[in-house]
What we know:
Chain A: It is a multi-pass membrane protein. With 342 residues, chain A is mainly α. Chain A has 17 helices and no strands.
Amino acid sequence: MSLPRKTLMVIPILICALLASMVLAVAVGPTTIPLDTVLKTVLYKVIHAIAGPATIPLDTLLFTSANSQTIVWDVRLPRVIAAVLVGCALAVAGTTMQGLFRNPMADPYIIGTSSGGALGATLAIVLFSGTGRPVFAFVGAMAATFTVYFIARKGGKIPVETLLLSGVALATLLSAFLSFLMYTAGKSLHQIMFWLMGGFWNISWNDVIIVLPILAGCLVIYLFARDVNILSLGEEDATHLGVNVEQLKRILLALSSFLAGIAVSVAGSIGFIGLITPHVMRLIVGPDHRLLFPATALAGGTLLLWSDTLTRTFANDMPVGIITACFGAPFFIYLLRSRMKT
Amino acid sequence: MKPVEIIDIDVSYGAKKVIEAVSLSAGQGEILGIIGPNGSGKTTLLRAMSRIVARDEGEIYLNDRNLNLFSFRELAQQIAVVPQDISIGFDYTVRDIVMMGRHPYIGRLASETARDRETCDRAMHLANIAHLAGSSVHEISGGERQRVLIARALAQEPKILLLDEATSNLDISHQIEILNIIRGLTGSITVISVFHDLNLAAYYCDRLIMLKDRRVFAVGEPRDVLTRETLNAVYGIDILVRTHPLTGKPYILPVYECAAKDRPYENVHVVCGGGTGSDLLYALHEEGFRVSTGVLNVFDTDYATATALDIPCVIEAPFAAISPGAREDLARCIDAACAVVVTAMPIGQGNIENIRILEGYRDKPVILLNSGGNPPFPDYTGGEAEAIIQKLLGRGAIPAKRIEEVLQILKKWA
Lengths: 342, 414
């Protein structure tokens, strides 16, 4: 497929928007930090990390107050990076699921990923008062995904309808367990509720390391962009065009649940980013996944970054899942209605 | 070395056998048609060739290489499939869809080359959709979308093209347009196609394979496979086979009647010729009259109709006048009939005996059917035939304009 130049321009625009958003997002918050201080601090820290301290005369030029350094480098930057990467992961996983299921209603959690993650995190909170929560969440998310996969598998094939239905069934079962845990949780209930609604509190550089594999996951998925395009013609047709459909489905399922699993483990289940971003980007760049994947990754990151910035600046740091749902759901209904009119 | 060689394959869906012991082979550049009733396994046979369904038994070879040994990409470079229709989830352009045909040639880390684009352009040109390249596949008509699928298949540069009733959903002009495109490809490409329309199959295919109840029933050239006997055995209805006057290929005509009825009405003899009596013979036969006809030449269209309907017919050699023997047979038929219907046939010296004989039957009811032609009975006897007709009318023969009138009158008498 030839990519028209006009839509190709979307990618550089999105990259600029994301970078600008990241700088702005570090600057704003309860304490506003001047933009030049933000840039200076980041440069200072990066140079120090690479070249070691006091070796460069630029040091004095770039030095900012210790207070701003802490806010920029230790508090806000990790949180901004985590929000961007989690947004990326959710958007790319959503795009993949919608392409795989040939169903625009699919989202990154559709095959039980978020319920599994939620149950894992809740177990960690109830049993170990929150220790190892990301690990538990990730394990729960992947376990749920694989259970659904094995339920739906028959004779080496995974019929898409069965996969969806078993996803729904398992999610219901896991929700029941989750409700039971919450019912018996006592004073941890508040912590569980917060986690379920999703957010980026207390994100440190350690959490950033956890979300870094998202970049690798997105890159690998991109290698299958053309296959996802062809899969949208239907499985039989895709086979005729040389796509190993069953293998492709397994790879895409594994990669997208990996992405969603990491997102869930760090930030809880944040809704609507994975559902909406692919829709909007498809309207702008068209259905070609070679363009759609990078576009949704960039847009998803930007969207979640702004939602998080909004809540921590103006909404007393309430769970970001509330913000994404508040904007996402009405927007989705609008999309649905305008599509019905045409 | 054959492009396709299928040896004794069985295919089943679950516990249900869909194909049993089917063997076939297709030669280089051949168009092979697969025909047969619904549920006879036609589409499944194609799906076995494109490896969508697995086979329980038997082997399939493409150019002497076992089908199982091909990777998905290799197979897509050998075989392209044109489905009946396709629903495309997202809003791709025609060029996007055709370019997908190049997928088996483009590496995972590569993108399309100038050669891929050229191949696509050529395929779109061949399929006559070059002007649609930028349109969305959701905006174009069904016929255009089908041509897009053909272009996509051609972009695969296949050795073998499989068509699964690729034209069934199209009107007759689009069917012919698309099949002409496909026939234009042969030589380089072997085409195997499922057909529902037997006439299209007869015209476009070099050979036909007829399936019945999961098995091969007949194989060969269209004129050997499409016979009244095989069609009756396979489809369970009476179908006439004729030769197309322009193409010389066989074409089939269903007899629109499912089973022989018992015949409650009496004998009627029809005097006709030159095709003027075919529809009447059919109508009488359908209504349940015992019909006879003649005298007719064995090359006459009405004679063909009579034999097709198993109507007894008094015959005469081609281009010969009615002989005394034939006249005797005719007399016997008229004796047995409760009435005689004469159609507006051209009358010459060769067949005038057919009406002259009626002068001798004073009491036999006669109906003269002509649809208002002028002259009512084309007369090539210099007025002799006209005189006989007038005489019959004068004696009480009933003129009728339409077949329905004839049927009404006859039923009243019967």
